[in-house]
């Protein structure tokens, strides 16, 4: 037989190929099975397992077509192959369909599975975060609370420890809270006494309150606002306020927060400076006038005394001459005072003086007359005071002036209080002379050191005592301050209504006498 | 004022009357002149082969689909996936080859294969035109399916190694 193409190579190829297919498909099946054992939930391994199962079926089914057929033909059993052939083809078709269906479904299932896996992963992460948060929540809360406490303490210390007055007001202007310095400055003991009071009650000038409140409302803040406050005891406080309005989300004012600086001392110093300038100019004027008047007065007095000698026995003439002499002497005294005021401490001898000793000497002279008017002296003199450098006579003059003023301030009976003390920090010695009189009205307290200013009746005072004293103490390098009413609790408790503070510098060296 | 949609009667009066007459006549024609039911469909002999060829098309479509999506959106990288895609590609070629062979076998004359009952005497009878050559060479389909299966085995083996390594690392990490 010749011609055509032999099918033997095809059948041999089929035989070998089919055998290899069976072997390889079983091998694939083994790996797929292993994969499913390793990860049971993996969709890809499941797909590969079923794919391999279908391919094993295909390989076995095809083997019937290629191997069994060959073997049966060799064995001469043609009928067997014809019986098996339809089953082989059918199984092959089923295997194809299975693989196709699995493949089409695999990808979609895989995508769904991936989405579920991602969500599960995100859920697991969220769960882990929540667990972590739950575990550390207590620590975080504690840490945050500590931070808040520290912050609160910091601001509380600033609020409580500030030497300036810090206060808060509500929308109506009532004080909602105030720090300890504010309470003390306003002359109260506890903040509860102030809380609830209207801020306007402390303003001495109602117009200033209106300006303060309107500015806060319209601008939202106010800065360097100088205002006069009235303390509980009636004393004046000069404050400089910086305040901000507290607003809600609708910009409606809910209140204000403010810091007020006490300028009272600063104002006093400024006033004293102005006073000094005043007195310096008046002193120059007075010195010129006194010098010019002093000579004619001396001549008048001299001639009057000569006339008195000439008319020794004539009482009718002597009486007017005595009046002239007396009034001339009064004029001379005024002129002497003026000259002393103008000369300040240019005269006199400076030495180291024990103040307590000097005070006792002065009191030994004036105390009797005080007692006559039922005025008693209360002494609180500190021991071991260092000496001050001053002119003895002039210091005594100052002390007499001050005690006399205290005497005149007390209309009926009362107490004149005298304190001495030494401030080691500033190295200053302080003499306080107070009285239980009527006090000095606020409107005149700024003018009491002016020359010729007096509140005493005609003929009782020349208005030069305090001016002269002020000049003398200034000459010693010290100063005189007045408080009416006094601020110190010690003086208040003693019932003083006015207190003059004579402050003298102390030199560390040596001693002296009075 | 909103306009109301205009209602149109699909059966005017005349048509409706005609229908009332036609319906009983149709019912009489159907019930009065019965024909064989033919409930059981009889299939001809090539139907099995056609079903088999359609299964090949279905199989090839699934493989082409998977290759396409793996190309567009790879599920992974590495040698395992590379072998897997090679396996799919060779299975696809095998499907095309076998489909062509099945189709050509339908076109061959009954006496195209000669040699009697003995398999080793079988030959493809001349004339050996292009169609017969394609048929003859296409019969060596194992040149496609055996490599396909081989690549599938390599792929699965690589998957196994990767998974075991990954699980081992996870175990050590834990």
Any key phrases for this structure?
heterodimer, A: 514 residues, alpha+beta, Beta-Lactamase, 4 domains, five-stranded antiparallel sheet, 13 strands, B: 174 residues, mainly alpha, 2 strands
Characterise this structure.
The complex is a heterodimer of chains A (about 525) and B (about 170). With about 525 residues, chain A is of the alpha+beta class. Chain A has 4 domains: about 10-130; about 165-260, 2-Layer Sandwich (Beta-Lactamase); about 270-340; about 350-505, Histidine kinase-like ATPase, C-terminal domain (Heat Shock Protein 90), CATH 3.30.565.10. Chain A is about 60% helix and about 20% strand. Chain A has helices at about 10-40, 45-75, 80-160, 180-185, 205-220, 265-310, 315-345, 355-370, 390-410, 465-475, 490-495, and strands spanning about 5, 165-170, 175-180, 220-230, 235-245, 255-260, 350-355, 375-380, 390, 415-425, 430-435, 480-485, 500-505. Chain A has a 5-stranded antiparallel beta sheet with strand order 3-2-6-5-4, with helices on both faces. Chain A has a 5-stranded mixed beta sheet with strand order 8-10-11-13-12, with helices on one face. Chain A has a two-stranded antiparallel ribbon with strand order 7-9. Chain A is rod-shaped. Chain B has one domain (about 45-175). Chain B has 5 helices and 2 strands, in the order αααββαα. Chain B has helices at about 15-30, 45-70, 80-105, 130-140, 140-174; strands at about 115, 125. In chain B, α3 crosses α4 (about 130-140). Chain B is flat. The model of chain B is unreliable at about 1-10 (pLDDT under 50). Chains A and B meet through β1, α1, α2 and α3 of A and α2, β1, β2 and α5 of B.
């Amino acid at each position: 037989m010749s011609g055509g193409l032999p099918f033997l190579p095809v059948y041999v190829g089929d035989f070998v190929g089919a055998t290899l297919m069976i072997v390889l498909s079983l091998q694939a099946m083994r790996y797929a099975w292993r994969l499913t054992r390793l990860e049971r939930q993996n969709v890809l391994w499941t797909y590969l397992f079923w794919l391999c199962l279908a391919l094993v079926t295909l390989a076995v089914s095809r083997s019937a077509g290629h191997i069994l057929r060959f073997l049966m033909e060799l064995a001469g059993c043609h009928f067997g192959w014809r019986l098996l052939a339809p089953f082989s083809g059918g199984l092959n078709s089923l295997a194809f369909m299975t693989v196709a269906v699995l493949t089409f479904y695999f990808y979609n299932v895989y995508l769904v599975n991936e989405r579920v896996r991602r969500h599960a992963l995100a859920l697991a992460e969220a769960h882990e975060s929540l667990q972590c948060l739950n575990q550390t929540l207590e620590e975080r809360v504690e840490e945050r609370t500590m931070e808040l406490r520290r912050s609160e303490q910091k601001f509380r210390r600033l609020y409580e420890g500030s030497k300036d007055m810090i206060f808060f007001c509500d929308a109506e202007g009532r004080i909602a809270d105030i720090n300890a310095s504010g309470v003390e400055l306003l002359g109260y003991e506890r903040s509860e006494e102030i809380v609830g009071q209207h801020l306007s009650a402390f303003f001495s000038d109602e117009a200033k309150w209106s300006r303060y409140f309107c500015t806060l409302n319209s601008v939202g803040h106010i800065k360097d606002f100088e205002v006069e406050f009235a303390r509980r005891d009636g004393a004046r406080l000069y404050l400089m306020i910086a305040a901000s309005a507290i607003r809600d989300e609708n910009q409606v004012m809910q209140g204000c927060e403010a810091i007020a600086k006490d300028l009272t001392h600063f104002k006093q110093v400024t006033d004293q400076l102005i006073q000094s300038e005043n007195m310096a100019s008046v002193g120059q004027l007075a010195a010129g006038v006194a010098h010019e008047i002093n000579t004619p007065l001396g001549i008048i007095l001299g001639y009057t005394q000569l006339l008195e000698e000439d008319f020794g026995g004539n009482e009718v003439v002597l009486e007017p001459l005595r009046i002239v002499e007396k009034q001339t002497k009064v004029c001379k005294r005024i002129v002497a005072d003026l000259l002393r005021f103008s000369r300040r401490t240019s005269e006199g001898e400076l030495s180291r003086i024990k103040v307590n000793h000097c005070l006792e000497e002065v009191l030994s002279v004036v105390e009797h007359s005080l007692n006559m008017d039922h005025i008693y002296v209360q002494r609180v003199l500190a021991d071991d005071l260092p000496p001050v450098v001053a002119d003895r006579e002039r210091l005594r003059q100052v002390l007499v002036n001050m005690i006399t003023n205290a005497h005149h301030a007390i209309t009926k009976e009362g107490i004149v209080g005298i304190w001495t003390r030494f401030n080691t920090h500033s190295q200053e010695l302080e003499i306080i002379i107070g009285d239980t009189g009527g006090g000095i009205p606020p409107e005149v307290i700024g003018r009491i050191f002016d020359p010729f200013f007096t509140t005493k009746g005609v003929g009782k005072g020349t208005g030069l005592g305090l001016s002269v004293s002020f000049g003398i103490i200034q000459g010693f390098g010290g100063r005189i301050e007045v408080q009416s009413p006094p601020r110190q609790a010690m003086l208040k408790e003693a019932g003083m209504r006015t207190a003059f503070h004579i402050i003298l510098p102390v030199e560390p060296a040596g001693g002296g006498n009075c | 004022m909103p306009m109301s949609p205009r209602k149109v009667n699909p059966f005017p009066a005349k048509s409706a009357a005609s229908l009332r007459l036609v319906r009983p006549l149709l019912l009489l024609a159907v019930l009065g002149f019965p024909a064989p039911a033919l409930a059981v469909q009889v299939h001809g002999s090539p139907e099995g082969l056609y079903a088999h060829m359609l299964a090949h098309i279905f199989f090839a479509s699934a493989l082409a689909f998977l290759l396409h999506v793996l190309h567009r959106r790879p599920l992974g990288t590495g040698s395992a996936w590379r072998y897997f895609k090679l396996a799919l590609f060779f299975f696809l070629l095998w499907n095309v080859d076998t489909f062509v062979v099945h189709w050509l076998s339908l076109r061959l004359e009954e006496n195209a294969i000669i040699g009697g009952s003995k398999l080793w005497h079988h030959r493809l009878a001349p004339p050996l035109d292009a169609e017969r050559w394609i048929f003859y060479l296409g019969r060596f389909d194992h040149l496609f399916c055996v490599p396909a299966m081989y690549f599938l085995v390599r792929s699965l083996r690589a998957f196994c190694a990767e998974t075991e390594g990954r699980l081992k690392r996870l175990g050590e990490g834990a």
